Description:
Chain A is of the alpha/beta class. Helices cover 37% and strands 14% of the residues of chain A. At the B-C interface, helix 8 and helix 9 of B face helix 5 and helix 6 of C.
Amino acid sequence: MHVLGANGTGKTTLLRVITGLLSPEHGRVAWGGRDTRFDSDGWRASFSYLGHSDGLKPELTARENLAFETGLRRRLREGEVDAALGQVGLAAACDLPAGFLSAGQRRRLAMARVMLAAAPLWILDEPYTNLDVGGSTLVAGVIGRHLDAGGAAIIAAHQALAIPGHTPRRLELS
Amino acid sequence: MERTGIFSAACLAFRRDLLLAFRHWGQVAQPLVFFAIVATLFPLALGPQLAELREIAGGTLWVAALLASLLGVELLFRADHADGTLEQMMISGQPLAMLVLAKGFAHWTVCGLPLVLLAPLVAAGLGAPPAANCTVMLSLALGTGILSALGAIGSALTLGLRRGSLLLGLLVLPLAMPALIFGARAIDLAIHGDSARGPLLLLSAMLVLCVTLAPPAAAAALRISAE
Amino acid sequence: MNWTWFHKLASPPHAYRIAARLLPWFGWPAGALIAAGLYGGLVLAPADYQQGDAFRIVYVHAPSAWLSMFVYATMAVAAAIGLVWRIKLAHAVAAASAPIGASFTFLALATGAIWGKPMWGTWWVWDARLTSELILLFLYTGVMALRASIDDRDRADRAAAVLALVGVVNLPIIHYSVYWWNTLHQPATLTKIGKPSMAGDMLWPLLVMMLGFTLYYAAILLIRLRAEILRRERDAGWLTTELAR
Lengths: 174, 227, 245
């Protein structure tokens, strides 16, 4: 699903309410028919979130960042981290501290984090920020593969999503 | 897909924080230096007579340790909040209280433990006999632990606020006063050659209470602050 | 069980109106009781054989000290209700109570100091009770400072609520630590500012004052609660119709 709207219409707020970081004043969030407040840990294991900030420690290398964030959620197998880095085009930068990467590279690294979590639902807030054309295509490809494998995604973005092989449903906020 | 167990996740968080501290050890050394400086203020203010300083050594050590710990406790959540990793920890599916406990323990290892190891040196400077060193270290070890726990709640509540450090002191110091009473008393007893078992046991009880109740409270405060 | 009546009660418009209606029921009895207590304590009660007339300040000091703790407990209960059931009115009650409690604490400290002067010759001693009250004052100022430092009202309410609860858990620990600390450093020669063992004639004005002060707190709370509701519901529609009445 593609969430659209001008600045300030509440796209980020909506996404944060879905993730549970923000509590709604009215209404509720349900996953698979059940209110997410009842099994919050289980709900959190079902999605992966990319927010405004990248969620990366600048002092840790790309590999270490991914290993930690994914390790909190699930057991990692040999080579998974490197494979993920390859998919977002950061294989060469795997041992660089995240603070030394460019903004676009960090965004792609954050995308790799989302991918590695292996969660069925991806909640992405402006995934194309700071990305050039090449980077955007890479990320769109990653999202496309996730959707092909049966995953779902809620994406808030200004621009068109351009995911190969998928036309998203649209939700416009005003 | 095998979900990480709670204990493994906590160990991971602990190791990460230790790693980060080692890459930033300059920042970590600051509370230690502050401890030494504050402890030095007292002889300068009150006069060099060791006999006089010995009478207030327990209190001086504790006040200096309290203030230094307060300074260091901000490191607990501030950086993680700023770069978004705290948010990720909150939605990782692991109980936040456990992660807070792990982070708190890492913080103590990095800020509290060095202070405890430096304490005998500072205590000697204040006229304490070497026989009291064991109690000095134990008392401060328990005390810095209590401070880390209370400080976690305080820094979770004041996350991201301007002038947060001042407010943090305002919130945490009154809560730490009971620990101060017993901790300083323990050192004073030891300096005079008496057994400090009573106050130390009470201090241990306080530590157990803090370590049990502070992580959930801090986790609740973090969720409130992150909204 | 149908809880809608409770939620109806806890909605700001209702609370605003009910507070106005309840106010005289607390205010007038409070005034009467305090007047009776003061007359009984200052005029009727005999002078204490040990302390002379100086002891009469207990008629203000003891109720203030009692209220300082009662208000904190009320604030903590309101905080818990606000956090668990997310009832905004509970947070408003906690916000309104904090300054009242701090004022009572300050009054207890001031009257304690005034009492201390004829007893010990100095304006301040580190008596267990007074030190405990002082730390309580710090806890109050902490809660008020935290609430004031956060711009987002919701976050401010909930953070202050967490702090109030942490404080309430700490309160017994602080109380007993300070008591122990005090007896340790000042063995029995010190006469505690406690309730001196009192004969019936001296006791009833004290109880009357305690009740009077408590009702006074309730009355002031209702007034402040209305002000708090006004502040929070500034933009709400019901307010304009209410004020136009």
